[in-house]
Amino acid sequence: MSNRMTGVKRPAEAGTPDVALAFEGVGKHYGNAVGVDMLDLQIPAGELVTLIGPSGCGKSTTLRLAAGLERPDKGTLRVAGDVVADGRRFVHPEHRRVGLVFQDYALFPHMTVAQNIEFGLDRLQRSERRARVGEVLDLVRLAPLAGRYPHELSGGEQQRVALARALAPRPAVVLLDEPFSSLDESLRAQVRRDTVATLRETGTTGVLVTHDQTEALSLGTRVVVMRGGAIEQSDTPERVFERPATRFVASFMGDADFLPATLHNTILKCEIGVVSTDPGWANSDLKVDVVLRPHEVALHPDPQSLAQVSAIEYYGAFVLHHVRLASGRTLRSWQPHTVRYAVGTAVAVTVAAGTTPTLLLGDHAITAPPQAGPANVQAPSLPLPLS
Ligand code: ADP
User: What's the pTM value of the predicted model, to 2 decimals?
Assistant: First the structure.
């Protein structure tokens, strides 16, 4: 991609401990394959950042670079202000103040819970080590299980040991690689809540890789969407979902349908009629695509309408209706479980009240008429709250 959208960079603060983890122009290639390309990302202390993107987009490479399991080809990496990798320096993982929680937890099977946690504390005196192990066992509510071996623990308990082991040396940042993916669905929600609570309680900065959109949105204070080795959007969960910066983010982070539309003198109109009017678009005359998510699309039966329900999917609390418009394009609409229009029902389609849909010019979101200048292309990222 030529115009990569990157996280906001504030060089002035990059070298301070307020930024727990900073990538500055970091590149990593594997032969001809791009791992990450010109990655700029700063993670302020105390944030929990979720990294998401399609398989092969560079999430693991980003985590492995931060951990010191890979060396960057170019750029600078800092942990709590200290350079840990650049053209000259390379700090090894054990000296980086970075904790790791792997997908399979990677606990030592021949060690007890307490011994697993104590493992990374060899630089402390014996008495300090014991005290610290006790503290983190209490933190993750595992003190009664201190003498057990990993095979004597449930999946959720193993995950808590892995988190405790990562937190024990008081790292500046904990990196979590799909930490919930091997847990049963029923356990996952609780373990997620516990993990986030533990990170918050200790004020620990976290970077969590996930392929699950709901997890990325619900856990992260910031969501970083990656694509092809670069950051597509780095933003709050609300903005990533409600104000996607690009067509890719709109369709990757939740269901989205796209309809060609015209913006003419404040009026945004597409096949289903006038979508919105906004004085900010005065004097505009543009062809755009409007992004509609299923919760923004309203339906009601109307025998006069040329739009028809083409399929329905029952999800329990909600029923997803697929609607074929006169043009042959399809929109999706969430309806409550009490509403189920049969396939073939003619329906009038409108945009739900209060919706301000995202507009795309080409593949990028716009928020104001383009003739006013490049500032109108939606900023991909919010400034980081460094204060
Ligand atoms: P993700 O974690 O998002 O699935 P990765 O960071 O694992 O993506 O991979 C990014 C790109 O780098 C992919 O094209 C992948 O094939 C490539 N890659 C990752 N690790 C290696 C490696 N050790 N050797 C060669 N290519 C690799």
Answer: 0.88
